[in-house]
Amino acid sequence: PRLRAEPKGRPWAALFIGRKTLMFKVPPLSAKRLAVLLCAMPKAELHIHIEGSLEPELIFALAQRNDVRLPYASVEALRSAYAFDNLQSFLDIYYAGASVLLHEQDFYDMARAYLARAAFDNVVHAEIFFDPQTHTARGVAIETVINGLHRACEDARSVHGISASLILCFLRHLSEADAFATLEQALPLQDKFIGVGLDSSEMGHPPEKFAQVFERCRALGLHLVAHAGEEGPPEYIWSALDVLKVERIDHGVQAVKDAALMQRLAKERIPLTVCPLSNQKLCVFPDLKNHNLRQLLDAGLCATVNSDDPAYFGGYINDNFTQVFAATGMTPRHAYQLASNSFEASFASEADKRQWQHRLKESFERFVEHDG
Ligand code: ADE
Ligand code: ZN
Fold first, then answer.
1. How far apart are CA 257 and CA 259, in angstroms?
2. Whose Cα sits closest to atom 8 in ligand 1?
3. Closest Cα partner for 195 from 223, 220, 173?
4. No. of H helices and E strands in the chain?
5. Pick the catalytic residue: 230, 231, 362, 365?
6. 306 CA to middle of ligand 1, Å?
7. 168 three-state secondary structure
8. With 70 as the cut, is the pLDDT of residue 88 above it?
9. 2 pLDDT more than 60
10. How are beta strands 43-49 and 123-130 bridged, if at all?
């Protein structure tokens, strides 16, 4: 579904589902009511690093359980280290935090805590990134990682009614040979993840460094995504699309610097998984009010809102929604578009997508009735 630009002065949302046009009135909402709507609407989360959901309290609990020494004296000392200048300054702390994960139960507990929190934010579907190399480099078997995360995803369906799947990310600061070795280790467990991604330090590690391993993953029928244009230039988004042949771009906010790229992203409806609080905390934008999410949406791109590393960036998905809306003055029409985009952009079945789009429409209609 796509929304047409609002006619001036008439707060109609025109919603196209197939050939049908559905119209309903979205009354002007107070900031408070808009925040309630943003939290209540069903949504998918497509950009969450599970290691970035480790709250300081859980890091300390796991450190104690596993007898791992941390270079921080307390939960408060760790949390106060969460002040970042850029992506790399965050990654250094993020990899240190992940060092407490040793056993299958640790990975299970981490994912279970995230999925409970996501369900609370009315996330109905999550596609979760994990970084196996961060763990295999410490001697943790890849089966330990994948089995723990996958079991939590399975249990979340029965406990919270949320669907969840896994995307294996290659660390781009390591070599392509290392990515190939990781893929080989993971392949016996291929039924437990749906795709691969590319994350970690972007500058100096362009997508084309991983051309061959992505080609192999494509041949294996895996879904493909990559971080591009978070700090890096629009050229990295072009090569993620044309060399790696990814289906979604993670972040992608630097696309606004390239008009031809913006046109392509809009025309092909290539999703961007945008993470407003992450961009603010890593100084990609000087302030949330300078964030370009509204510009991306108004240019017709399939942008979505996500939390990236919620334990480190001060908020889960609903915090991202409410804070970026408050800062940029987006409207209920943008809210509908973002939730709808999250389902459109997901790798779920067409039947699931239709059902979630229907639930979204119902949630807006119910909200508008109560408001009227
Ligand atoms: N790994 C975890 N969060 C990341 C981000 N925002 N960019 C790149 N790699 C990451
Ligand atoms: Zn990310």
1. 7
2. 200
3. 223
4. 17, 10
5. 230
6. 12
7. strand
8. yes
9. no
10. parallel
